[in-house]
Fold this sequence. Notes:
This protein is α+β, with helices and mostly antiparallel strands. It is about 55% helix and about 15% strand.
Amino acid sequence: xxxxxxxxxxxxxxxxxxxxxxxxxxxxxxxxxxxxxxxxxxxxxxxxxxxxxxxxxxxxxxxxxxxxxxxxxxxxxxxxxxxxxxxxxxxxxxxxxxxxxxxxxxxxxxxxxxxxxxxxxxxxxxxxxxxxxxxxxxxxxxxxxxxxxxxxxxxxxxxxxxxxxxxxxxxxxxxxxxxxxxxxxxxxxxxxxxxxxxxxxxxxxxxxxxxxxxxxxxxxxxxxxxxxxxxxxxxxxxxxxxxxxxxxxxxxxxxxxxxxxxxxxxxxxxxxxxxxxxxxxxxxxxxxxxxxxxxxxxxxxxxxxxxxxxxxxxxxxxxxxxxxxxxxxxxxxxxxxxxxxxxxxxxxx
Length: 349
């Protein structure tokens, strides 16, 4: 699809919410392509995703209402409130950085305030990108490894892999709860009590006076890893392969974006220079018949991991954003939102 097609689609009835929702309409300052159409890796059957930013209402800024984002599941559209967007950008959240890194023609809506945000995106870039993008890349790698391990190794070895994945996912919790006066948790593998398994993971946990919500969150992390792992292999082979290759592609793409941020101070969402490589990964060019990936793929992964580590050490970006400058810009934008200054030059509909 061309950008002309996307703009025509945006003006159809299924996207009327963009014009009619009170929190959207002329309050939208940026709207652009998301997902594979943003990265340039789209295929014939790729979903169409729109991502954007809308200004907070006066009642959010001065009153008691709260608003973080608007989602329309039917059209895969997500529009963040400006204040929510700022908080995510300060952490170099990959999903939100992408919105500020589109090519000029990939924006469907860009108001004067939207352009000012793009001009100031450097305010939000810092060495936090290494941790944030690295964390997302790590999650993609775990999904990839989980899927491969599910079908490629014996159950005993798969259980070890699940245990390692759970421990990785619980890293923050283990730092907080592993050794403190309210109790502890220990995960280990032993002979299975489940007759369908040879070995299985067991938990020894003891907590006292622990906040229920913290306890719930900790168990949710472990539950999600096991649940996602068990889902793998229940799909048909072709669809499962597509998911594996998609995870592999996004893993490399995340490293590419992180390196650009750390080395150049740039957000480049569309990966034109690396499209051949990304499309080769996406189409299964590095996958063997047994679902595992070739040594060449892991060489590419290792090279990007080392490059990001080096870029993080040598980056000229600050360790953290300059909050005084960020606060000044946020106040400037929100003042426009309250006083109606956002309407200046806003003619998108």
